Amino acid sequence: MSKDMDWSNLGFGYIRTDQRYVSNYKDGSWDEGTLTSDDCVTISECACVLQYAQSIFEGLKAYQTEDGRIVTFRPDLNAERMIDSAKRLEMPPFPKERFLDAVDQVVSANREWVPPFGSGATLYIRPYMFGSNAVIGVKPAEEYQFRVFVTPVGPYFKGGAKPISVKISDFDRAAPHGTGHVKAGLNYAMSLHALVTAHNEGFAENIYLDPGTRTKIEETGGANIIFIDGDGNVVIPKSDSILPSITRRSLMVVAESVLGLKVTQREVLLSEVKFGAFKECGLCGTAAVISPVGKITDHGEEFVFAAGMEEMGPVTKKLYDTLTGIQMGRIEAPEGWIREIK
Ligand SMILES: *Cc1c(COP(=O)(O)O)cnc(C)c1O
Questions:
Q1: Disulfide engineering: 341 pairs with which of 70, 160, 223, 306, CB 3.0-4.6 Å?
Q2: What residue spans define the domains of the chain?
Q3: Is 183 a catalytic residue?
Q4: CATH of 164-327, one of 3.20.10.10, 2.40.240.20, 3.40.1190.10, 3.40.50.300
Q5: Rounded to 10 degrees, what is the CA torsion of 221, 122, 327, 205?
């Protein structure tokens, strides 16, 4: 049974649920980990995470399928990505099997918080890890905490997926050879000013260019970008500083093997977009799956995609329907994509 909530009117905010998972790293190893009802973290005032932002995270969702099962979508890829993030920030990786087990435990212990099928709402899962002991001279922490909490989130699109208007940012997200490819809190801290600036100017999001040449499309603050070209095929920007979105990687497989589209991953120039090389554009990530982009503005110069500002383009819609169908159990998933929570 689900909690008695107005699921379809839920927003994207934090709601405290019943249980979360905690494991501590000390003297070179992770403890056995446990569920707890305590939603507060107590750490030193000088904890490495507070002074030097040594913090990484993941984001995924649990869904209730049409036949009432509770499932997560490709959590193994989140576990692997978090290991990559940990290595880049000199943190001890949390083992993959333990990550999967922790996510299963927290979802299972909060199963009443999994929104019912058809409500459009889902259970957002947030694994994260931070350096917890006192560090004042700059160096990695020696003690860490790994935690997983869940919070129900409402439908991303209320009343249909209206295309959004985005701007080309004057700020950079990720330096060449920097940390753009790992899911670290620091990438978000420095994007907040750019985000608030864009919102104040009436844009939903920023598109960041490659900082080296400022000619190539990278991604937005929290989502990868996909384009659909004039032939209805998929083009994905390629760069070492783009965060490897699991949604985007899954959409590439769906496009190719389920929908029979050609998928190309290559450098995408902003000038190509302006010349009209693409008919549709979307932002992909766990939260929205795909959020259609209708218009890109670069210093007052506007480009409106052929799909327009009223609705999602036809190819984007097909990709969206197919991937959400797989996640909700309406369409058969490729081997290993769906993990059932017992
Ligand atoms: C998390 C994230 C994404 C989306 O990744 P998913 O695995 O699809 O949720 C895209 N870009 C950035 C910068 C991110 O942090």
A1: 70
A2: 7-153, 164-327
A3: yes
A4: 3.20.10.10
A5: -20
